[in-house]
């Protein structure tokens, strides 16, 4: 199933997207001992975009993702609540959301990953 781009994405040059995915694929193949500049030197991206790619490549991977689901069982006003709250820690900031917002976040992340897989 093909998913159309949003209106603001329609001005993206397909060749640029293809080059971006190709460059990212090559960067992902490198080990930490390799030099990512060798891949970026051959690309047609601006210096600012190359700096962003280098920053992301050197960034520490967050392997210990902290998250949880808390359920409010009771409080002083209500005898029983059973209201779930989802919390995530992203970049050191704790985010708390209700079930509906989490469902929307999960859907949007899934949709973005699907688009990346489709156009890669």
Helix content percent band? 40-55%
Number of DSSP-assigned strands:
3
Number of alpha- plus pi-helical segments: 4
Q: SSE order in H/E notation?
A: HHHEEEH
Question: Major sheet, described briefly?
Answer: 3 strands, antiparallel
Low-pLDDT residue spans:
none
Q: What proportion of the residues form beta strands (DSSP E)? A: 15-25%
Q: Compute the gyration radius: what is it? A: 20 Å
Could you say which overall geometry the principal axes of the C-alpha atoms support? elongated
State the domain count: 2
> Whole-Å distance between the termini?
15 Å
Widest beta sheet: strand line-up: 1-2-3
Structural class: alpha+beta
Mean pLDDT: 79
Structure description:
- This is DNA topoisomerase (ATP-hydrolyzing).
- With 120 residues, the chain is an alpha+beta fold.
- It folds into 2 domains: 1-59, no CATH class; 62-120, no CATH class.
- Helix content is 44%, strand content 16%.
- It contains 4 helices and 3 strands, in the order αααβββα.
- Strands 1-2-3 form a 3-stranded antiparallel sheet.
- β2 (83-90) and β3 (93-97) form a beta hairpin.
- The longest helix is centred in the last third of the chain and has 21 residues, at 99-119.
- It is elongated and about 65 Å long.
- It starts with 13 loop residues before the first helix and ends with a helix.
């Amino acid at each position: 199933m093909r998913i159309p781009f949003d209106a603001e994405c329609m001005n993206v040059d397909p060749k640029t997207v293809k080059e971006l995915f190709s460059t990212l694929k090559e960067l992902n193949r490198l080990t930490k001992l390799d030099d990512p500049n060798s891949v970026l030197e051959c690309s047609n991206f601006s210096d600012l975009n190359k700096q962003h790619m280098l920053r992301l490549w050197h960034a520490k991977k967050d392997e210990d993702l902290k998250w949880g689901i808390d359920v409010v069982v009771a409080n002083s006003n209500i005898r029983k609540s059973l209201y779930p709250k989802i919390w995530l820690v992203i970049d050191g900031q704790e985010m708390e959301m209700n079930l509906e917002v989490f469902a929307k976040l999960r859907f949007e992340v899934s949709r973005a990953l699907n688009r990346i897989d489709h156009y890669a």
